[in-house]
Amino acid sequence: MARTGTADLVIVANRLPVDRTTNPDGSRGWRRSPGGLVSALEPVMRAGDGAWIGWPGVAGHDDLEPFVEDGMQLVPVGLSAEEVEEFYEGFSNSTLWPLYHDVVAKPEFHREWFDSYVKVNERFAAAAAEVASENATVWVQDYQLQLVPRMLRDLRPDLRIGFYLHIPFPPSELFQQLPWRRQVLEGLLGADLVGFQLPAAAQNFIRLVRQRVGHKTHRDTVYLPDGRTVKAAAFPISIDTAGFEELARSESVERRARAIREALGNPAKIFLGIDRLDYTKGIYARLRAFSELIADGHFGVEDAVFVQVATPSRERVEQYRILRDEIDRLVGRINGDLGRIGRPAISYLHSSYPREEMAALYRAADVMVVTPYRDGMNLVAKEYVACRFDNDGALVLSEFAGAAEELRQAWLVNPYDINGMKQALLAAYEADPKDLNRRMKAMRRTVREKDVAFWADHFLEELSATRPEHGKPLRPARKS
Ligand code: G6P
Asked: What's in the keyword line of the UniProt record (predicted)?
């Protein structure tokens, strides 16, 4: 066996939970990036001597010594400029991302991109093999690292390995397009437990393994020829609900929410969209639906405004550039046609904001509009619900977001159906407070009961159960 490290729980993700920063004096540092995943795993990482392996988000191989931040051991993995192009922008985000999201954009298949994906996955697997203690638990995250479970098992058969896919897993008709479909399935089968957002995704995976790799399967379990079994199941991800609610209740957020409403001219209703600027999110169709409601005379720009925050994302990828231009043009046209002085129909912000500002926007918004064509879960929908502690506010939600399976009391829409979206936006605009209250209360119960700590505990418990005779038990993530 290879030399072992000291970490009992190792998270392997494409990104580290910190961002690289440059101080005023030119020296460089790290700033915690406030993801739900890291807040969920922090207690268990600290309790169990955890390590997090990930890419720092910039090209280059300098500055890559492991370091400790907030009691967590962080292990950076470097990517060269060419690997950023081929592994990250290429295979991960121009092949797998569109393929796994219903082919909303056309996936590109290039052999040299896959070669780079293999090489980078090997590097992550080697880093995990080095820091994991004997019989440790390793939890690999997301579509960028699907080959890591198999590679890691070859290096370290003693480990208990989990894999979680944060994005949808496509129906087999689409997955079969992938020239490297067998390698990906075999990569995932290196894990003891493969987690998905929804039960249908886990079933897709099991069916594909049976058809494409030829292993025996029964219900949620794959039986490998060497006697090992792999389980596939759904674990819908969530947010740090209590953390968001606490932030939303703070005096400063409340003050900022009032200031936002005022700056927008105190309209009767504020609609809000917050998304990474991604073609899966359905931003274009939603803005059209809203603008048609104004053009049709259902309300005017004095009555309602749509605030659309689009967070810059994957900006060097062609499809993302095209989308940015399309949205720029559409917003310009809508505001040119419908706006009045000081009263645009759409207030468009191409920028990313800290959690406090997001919470203030959620507090200020009367109607939250989340209409992706396909989305693994969509945490923005859950964050909005967490922030509406007085049980008001309306959520318009795509049927094709994973969150729609839990947030049944939202106004559910088909994002391809513009007339249907118009009806739902109008119904949310006109809803009476009693109806809002009933819906929001039910949704709030869901996100309170099933928060991100519940998700992490549930996954890690199931993972421990996969090989009870083997490996160290982990302490649960829940703080209480
Ligand atoms: C999605 C993926 C994550 C990814 C995030 C941001 O949520 O599931 O794995 O980190 O988008 O995308 P980026 O390419 O900036 O990491």
From this structure: Glycosyltransferase, Transferase
In angstroms, rounded to a whole number, what is the distance separating the alpha carbons of residues 343 and 363? 21
162-185: average pLDDT: 97
> Structural domain of residue 296, as residue ranges?
241-449
Which of 38, 91, 166 is the best mutation target for the ligand 1 pocket, counting ligand atoms within 8 Å of the beta carbon and taking the most? 166
For 378-393, write each residue's pLDDT tens digit.
999 999 999 999 999 9
Relative to the CA of 141, which ligand 1 atom is closest?
A: 9
Cα-based angle 397, 398, 404 (whole degrees, multiple of 5) = 75
User: Same domain, yes or no, for 215 and 255?
Assistant: no
> Which residues line the pocket of ligand 1, CB cutoff 6 A?
14-15, 142, 166-167, 313-314
- The CATH number given to whatever domain includes residue 323 is 3.40.50.2000
Q: What's the pLDDT tens digit per position in 231-244?
A: 999 999 999 999 99
Closest CA to 372 of 360, 380, 364: 380
Question: Are both 458 and 404 inside the same structural domain?
Answer: no
User: How does DSSP assign 205-243, residue by residue?
Assistant: HHHHIIIII--EEETTEEE-TTS-EEEEEE------HHH
User: Which residue among 95, 101, 142 has the greatest number of ligand 1 atoms within 8 angstroms of its CB, and so is best to mutate?
Assistant: 142
Q: 95 and 114: one domain?
A: yes
pLDDT tens, residue by residue, 385-442: 999 999 999 999 999 999 999 999 999 999 999 999 999 999 999 999 999 999 999 9
Pocket test for ligand 1, best of 84, 238, 276, 452 (most atoms within 8 A of CB): 276
Q: Is residue 61 part of a domain?
A: yes
With 0-12 / 13-18 / 19 or more C-beta atoms within 10 angstroms meaning exposed / middle / buried, residue 48 is: buried
pTM over cut 0.90: yes
Does 480 score more than 60 pLDDT? Answer: no
| 195 assigned to some structural domain | yes
> Could you tell me the distance, in angstroms and rounded to a whole number, from the CA of residue 101 to the centre of ligand 1?
13
Evaluate whether residue 189 is within a structural domain: yes
* Alpha carbon of 278 to ligand 1 centroid (Å): 11
Same domain, 188 and 254: no
Q: Judge whether 477 lies within some domain.
A: no
Q: Residue 75 belongs to what H/E stretch?
A: strand 72-76
